Description:
Rossmann fold; nine-stranded mixed β-sheet; alpha/beta; 3 domains; 20 strands; six-stranded antiparallel β-sheet; single chain
Amino acid sequence: MRYAETDAEELDALLGLLPQSVAxxxxxxxxxxxxxxxxxxxxxxxxxxxxxxxxxxxSWLIESDTLEEAAARIGNFDADNxxxxxxxxxxxxxxxxxxxxxxxxxxxxxxxxxxxxxxxRDVIDSRRSVLLVGRPGVGKTTLLREIARELxxxxxxxxxxxxxxxxxxxxxxxxxxxxxxxxxxQVPAPDRQHQVMIEAxxxxxxxxxxxxxxxxxxxxxxARTIAERGIQLVATAHGxxxxxxxxxxxxxxxxxxxxxxxxxxxxxxxxxxxxxxxxRRGAPTxxxxxxxxxxxxxxxxxxxxxxxxxxxxxxxxxxxxxxxQDEGVQIDRRTLRPASSDWAKLAExxxxxxxxxxxxxxxxxxxxxxxxxxxxxxxxxxLGITVRPxxxxxxxxxxxxxxxxxxxxxxxxxxxxxxxxxxxxxEGTSVERVRKGLxxxxxxxxLQSGSGDGSVSSYLSSA
Length: 463
């Protein structure tokens, strides 16, 4: 098997899976090299996604035969409805109907990008364990891949990659050159990732273990067991920020676990706080947390234990904003204002919370259910924030719906709830109520430490 040697060859491999009626309009685009993914859904127009937005590739509608033709070229899909393209880093995901027939395909372009590791070289060289978080598509796996290569080739460490969906090192038995000399263990099924993590440590004695997407309690516990053996971990996790991890009951074990503590009268007076407080239960699994704001901009919490304690106590939070520029890495040390965990305060003045933000938050990427994108975009402009609605539920970080749609529960809403996705319910669709509801959603997910236990009822908007 030969891996593609250039970006052009890898792009041709992806476009070669598509019918000519879809591939040619993409090739004719001036920014063809910036392609992110191609979306094909039965009964809809084909779409190509670029950093600047989506582009329709024609006025015709996708038919079942078109998808069957593409699926035949791709080959077999795994249990998680994903497939790879041998010799590349591309990933293809399928959407099936109830009978198992493919009714949608997402062909996501994968490629090794070099240079970003400069932003974190000092962190990984310190042998501390590092956790990466960020919204879908922001570049977590890309950075993880380059970290694996730098640790193996640049620092001479024994690196082993646990590759659940072959996204880090590509499809096929020979790992992609993007991970350098790091070794790779493939995972036969997603629900066995935690077992392969333990097997990797017990059988192959790595100095560094690379893991993409810790998302279950079993995987979080396995990571903790591995860290206690003195092995450096570098991993990604579901979540956009430290605040998301703290309020996630499944993954907050990664930051040490969160528990309710009842303080004595004297201690409560000394702290100037209530008697019932949240505290960190133990030491975090990871030493450093990196929030990926953009591909060339990271927010680095160099001491995860102190950062977690600061968030829980509502104290100022020290962090480093690292930006990759032509002349090198610029490090801007910042003190972020305390993030309130009081949902009532957030409900009263969400627009004020946005106006008082001391940094530029990344865009919000919601799935809209029963509300038009035009109303959401208009509200976003009024608030001075960036909102990018997505067309697939799996790519969204939250779902925004109306009360009438919420009361008439359908399969889309049920899927969002099963995925533990935050669901914000607008009380109405007037300009004012949409603006207030969007402000609350944006402030809760981008500027606050959380709003409850993650259930739907915790996110009901009173706008």
